[in-house]
Amino acid sequence: MTKKGIAGGLTNYGDQDFSLYLRRSFARSMGLSDRLMAAPVVGIAAAQSGFNNCHRAMPELVEAVSRGVLAAGGLPRVFPTISLGEVFLSPTSMMFRNLMAMDTEEMIRAQPMDAVVLIGGCDKTVPAQLMGALSANIPAVQLVTGPMSTGSHKGERLGACTDCRRFWGQYRAGEIESDEIEVIEGRLAVTSGTCAVMGTASTMACIAETLGIALPGSAAIPSVHSARLLAAEASGRAAMALVEKPILPRQVITEKSVANALRVLMAVGGSTNAVIHLAAIAGRAGIKLSYDWLNEISDTTPVLVDLKPVGEGYMEDFFAAGGVGAVLRELKPLLHLDVTDIEGRSLGERLEENLDWVDRKVIREFANPISQTGGLIALKGNLAPLGAIFKRAAATQKLFEHKGRAVVFETLEDLANRIDDPALDVTADDILVLKNAGPKAAGMPEAGYLPIPRKLARAGVKDMVRISDARMSGTAFGTVVLHIAPEAAVGGPLAAVRNGDPIRLSVADKRIDLLVSEDEIKRRLAEHVPPPVPSRGYAALYQRCVTQAPDGCDFDFLAGGAE
Ligand code: FES
């Protein structure tokens, strides 16, 4: 790859000299000097939006990245892409991750830039940017917006969004009143940045750093910390270094670095959503993230990080404790040390530098883990022939081996209408089943954390086995089987479950089974009527082309990267 600056990728008028002359004259209208017009161009993909609180600090970060590019002699050019604010999108942000990935890929490719810095943070934005960057495959640096700092309520620290769910559960159970929940609402998300716990955004930030496409030490810096601006400036400089000595995303994101990322995902007790996103990211590099591989890594990787939703601390504690660098040093014997990062360093070289201090309350030593095995596993069984995901670190151990009666909700609407019906026939030993919330049926919303029916919540029930083809927020917890594939809408066995059927979950055997004869399951599936499909626009494209969860819910025509 040669640096071309603003002369790269000329608009096609059938006369290249004219195209360059026209581009340069229009560039002059932006007041660019001759020196800058001759400089390498670093694009800055800035996913800013008034509908994305997690990206509130974007203008400062853009300014700092630009500073780094300018100081290294380059021309920074900011460009917008779609921004996905998790709680502002309907029906679910997941539906738009692939759209943002396409936007990012195409704008990187279509505009003249020699390298790109991608700034994202909220759950779907970093996966989308990495998918796009891998497919465009020009030198790229990922920068995250960083996690929120905590608030407080009556002497207790609060952070979005594990505490949001905890207090909402208490409110539903009648343990706190509506005036208190209103006060809490104002104290959960009090700074710029992404959710304050090891949810999906934080997990993806740790994964980006482990993959080597974000700068070392940059994942966990709080959004409001001055070090975040320094990391932004350094990201601009790193992009310029990549212009001089290109290292492409597909040289950084390889089977070995994905294996390292899976190790870190397990060790930090990361989000179930990260499995889907990492599968999609790996898929863009032509790497298949199989569930057997996931289980092999989970069974041999300890959980070392004590953060909510599975433990105690918040991301600001993780940063102060040593962050991803400290985790990588503990995992060193399990990692591929010969992978290369965007600075051209091997992981082994990075880890030779000693950290001055690690807070062992937050990041445990390898020999003293929180648990011997990883937080996430894949399940198989006749209910999930292509697999399902289970976060054992966030589940109730006494439900790990459980047989119960299915209480079935056919759709999300059915769930909303009946879950709190006092007449609902349900006990704490039953298994709540949600169908038709998978990628094709509903865009795969975070509805897999089915609420405990109000009458049971009020009787003190805190957890039940819940199963679905949906996802769950990375900040949630409970005995929840997710991502069942194939989903019900395409005729997966989940579609055959009826009220009262016995279901067995076995974490020891890594299985989820419907205890109904195979003949009866086949007979029921033969009668299955798929839900109606959208006929126009992006929803129709999505429904037609989205893959199942084990393939990352990418579009089938985008996996595998650029031609
Ligand atoms: Fe953006 Fe949680 S809502 S990271």
Structural key phrases:
14 strands, 563 residues, globular, eight-stranded mixed β-sheet, alpha/beta, 3 domains
Provide an overview of this structure.
Helices cover 36% and strands 12% of the residues. It starts with 15 loop residues before the first helix and ends in an 18-residue tail after the last helix. The chain folds into three domains: 39-149 and 191-351, no CATH class; 161-185, no CATH class; 376-551, IlvD/EDD C-terminal domain-like (Glucose Oxidase, domain 1). The model has no long low-confidence stretch (mean pLDDT 96). The chain is globular, with a radius of gyration of 24 Å. The strands form three sheets. Strands 7-8-12-11-10-9-13-14 form an eight-stranded mixed beta sheet. A four-stranded parallel beta sheet has the order 2-1-3-4, with helices on both faces. A two-stranded antiparallel ribbon has the order 5-6. It has helices spanning 16-28, 34-37, 58-71, 94-110, 125-136, 162-172, 178-185, 200-211, 226-244, 249-252, 255-267, 273-284, 291-299, 315-321, 323-331, 347-352, 412-418, 439-442, 454-458, 518-526, 537-545; strands at residues 41-46, 75-80, 115-120, 140-144, 151-153, 156-158, 376-379, 387-391, 401-409, 431-434, 465-468, 480-485, 502-506, 511-514. Helix 4 (94-110) runs parallel beside helix 5 (125-136). The chain is of the alpha/beta class and 563 residues long. It contains 21 helices and 14 strands. FE2/S2 (inorganic) cluster (FES) binds at residues 54, 86-87, 122-123, 161, 194-195, 199, 201. Residues 54, 86-87, 122-123, 161, 194-195, 199, 201 line the site of FE2/S2 (inorganic) cluster (FES).
